[in-house]
Specification:
This protein has a single domain, classed as 3-Layer(aba) Sandwich (Rossmann fold), CATH 3.40.50. The chain is built from 6 helices and 6 strands. Helix 5 links the parallel strand 5 and strand 6. The radius of gyration is 16 Å and the shape is globular. GO terms for molecular function: GTP binding; GTPase activity.
Length: about 200
């Protein structure tokens, strides 16, 4: 249908504080990386127009705070999401162990119509740090994703732009498929962007 309304895809990026959520988003949208660390307060978002299978869509990427004290903000930000990205640091075992709770929390707060088929993507970030510091193997992460119904998995480096573009291509495609599946349900609410000010320039790198 050429007369379709403009497509807005809402993507939520979750994970512990410091795993690189802001860095990944800035690398993808702005092609920039900064080594300074500034924790995200609440949530910020950036937008990027991308082509998905020859269709122009606007991705709205929400970068949420990893600190537990901000998780109560979840409902407003999670509702209407088309894809959820779970990020951990391959050099930090705890950040991997909490992926399950982030995923569960998202499903509770976002209340998607079909939780079983809702698209998630897992990113193992900071592969540039080096194999000697790595604590979570590719095999373990892949097994986790397969156990959740075959979640797409990418190993990334926001610093060196490794797999960032490829990962977000899959994220965009899965988000678009989810958005289109909602078109069959006229009762599904529209996503209303919330203006929460400028994206901070710090990063969780």
């Amino acid at each position: 249908m050429s007369s379709r309304k403009k497509i807005l895809l809402k993507v939520i990026i979750l994970g512990d504080s410091g795993v690189g959520k802001t860095s990944l988003m800035n690398q993808y949208v702005n092609k920039k990386f900064t080594a300074s660390y500034k924790a995200t307060i609440g949530a910020d978002f950036l937008t990027k127009e991308v082509l998905v299978d020859d269709r122009l869509v606007t991705m709205q990427l929400w970068d949420t705070a990893g600190q537990e004290r901000f998780q109560s903000l979840g409902v407003a930000f999670y509702r209407g999401a088309d894809c959820c990205v779970l990020v951990y640091d391959v050099n930090n075992a705890k950040s991997f162990d909490t992926l399950d709770s982030w995923r569960d929390e998202f499903l509770i707060q976002a209340s998607p119509m079909d939780p079983e088929s809702f698209p998630f993507v897992v990113l193992g970030n900071k592969v540039d740090v080096g194999e000697d510091k790595r604590v979570i193997s590719s095999k373990r992460a892949t097994a986790f994703c397969q156990g959740k119904g075959g979640i797409p998995y990418f190993e990334t480096s926001a610093k060196e732009a490794v797999n960032v573009e490829q990962a977000f291509e899959v994220i965009a495609r899965n988000a678009l498929a989810q958005e289109e599946s909602q078109d069959f349900n006229p009762d599904f609410p529209e996503t209303i962007p919330i203006n929460i000010g400028e994206q901070n320039q710090g990063c969780s790198c």
